[in-house]
Amino acid sequence: MTSAPLTFRPRTHEDWQIYRPEIERLYRDDQLKLRDVKKIMERDYGFVASYCSLFGVFAAVKAD
Predict the structure, then answer these.
(1) Model pLDDT for residues 15-64, shown as the tens digit of each residue
(2) How big is the CA angle at 43 (ends 47 and 10), to the nearest 5 degrees?
(3) How many Å apart are CA 58 and CA 64, to the nearest integer?
(4) How far is the C-alpha of 20 from the C-alpha of 37, rounded, in Å?
(5) Cβ proximity of 48 and 42 under 8 Å
(6) CA 10 – CA 32 distance, rounded (Å)
(7) What is the pTM of this model?
């Protein structure tokens, strides 16, 4: 039986940078919707962020 990853809530810019490549891949490359990216990040990485926070990251991804 596999255990769920520990919950991680990003607090600093550096916290986001650790997961940014995966968030970008899911959003830009796989073209998933925000809710789907959020679910995958929570399920696979224990990465728990609000929709508003994720939207801010997506806005930065679009600008890049």
Answers:
(1) 888 999 999 899 999 999 999 999 999 999 999 998 888 877 767 666 66
(2) 5
(3) 10
(4) 12
(5) yes
(6) 21
(7) 0.76
Token pair in block for residue 52: 């508003």
Whose CA is closest to 39, among 60, 17, 63, 23? 23
Match 């490549």 to its residue by tokens: 21
Residue 27 near residue 54, CB atoms below 8 Å: no
Structure tokens at 62: 């679009």
Q: Are 54 and 35 in contact (CB under 8 A)?
A: no
> 32, exposed or middle or buried, with CB in 10 Å at 0-12, 13-18, 19+?
middle
